[in-house]
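We were asked to recover a plausible sequence for a given structure. The inputs and outputs are reproduced exactly as logged, with field labels preserved.

PROBLEM: sequence recovery
POSITIONS: 152
GIVEN STRUCTURE:
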């Protein structure tokens, strides 16, 4: 995969399943967009997809976390700010179904801060997914998680 850009590219984040399916995701600095590309096992990376459509400049608050299974199902997660505070966003991809764009896993209130998000994705062989993150509040911290069923 090769993409010519006229922007600052943030650190690419990669994941590969044992069978060879892969995903790469990265941010574009000046436009503040999060992008990704998927490669089925033994194949080249496909089209580049913008995952953070409609995001205001400066709203992407974390590098993406990525996970892929042997079936080529992909999950990308990141933290994004908005008018009501931060939110944890995920995008999922399944071969034949494409990307399911901009699912909010959770809104985080202005009195909460999100920490340690990058370790929080899981995906099993059947495509069931889990995202987890830590929330730091004035009263202490708590771990949160959301489970997703497989993409049909």
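RECOVERED SEQUENCE:
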């Amino acid at each position: 995969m090769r993409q010519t850009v006229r922007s600052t590219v943030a650190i690419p984040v990669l994941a590969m399943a044992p069978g060879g399916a892969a995903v790469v995701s990265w941010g574009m600095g000046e436009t503040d967009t999060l992008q990704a590309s998927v490669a089925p096992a033994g194949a080249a990376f496909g089209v580049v997809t913008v995952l953070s459509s409609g995001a205001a400049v400066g709203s992407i608050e974390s590098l993406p976390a990525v996970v892929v299974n042997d079936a080529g199902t992909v999950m990308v997660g990141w933290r994004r700010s908005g008018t009501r505070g931060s939110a944890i966003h995920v995008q999922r991809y399944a071969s034949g179904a494409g990307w399911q764009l901009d699912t909010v896993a959770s809104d985080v209130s202005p009195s909460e801060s999100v920490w340690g998000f990058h370790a929080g994705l899981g995906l099993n062989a059947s495509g069931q997914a889990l995202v987890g993150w830590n929330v730091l509040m004035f009263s202490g911290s708590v771990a949160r998680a959301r489970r997703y069923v497989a993409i049909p």
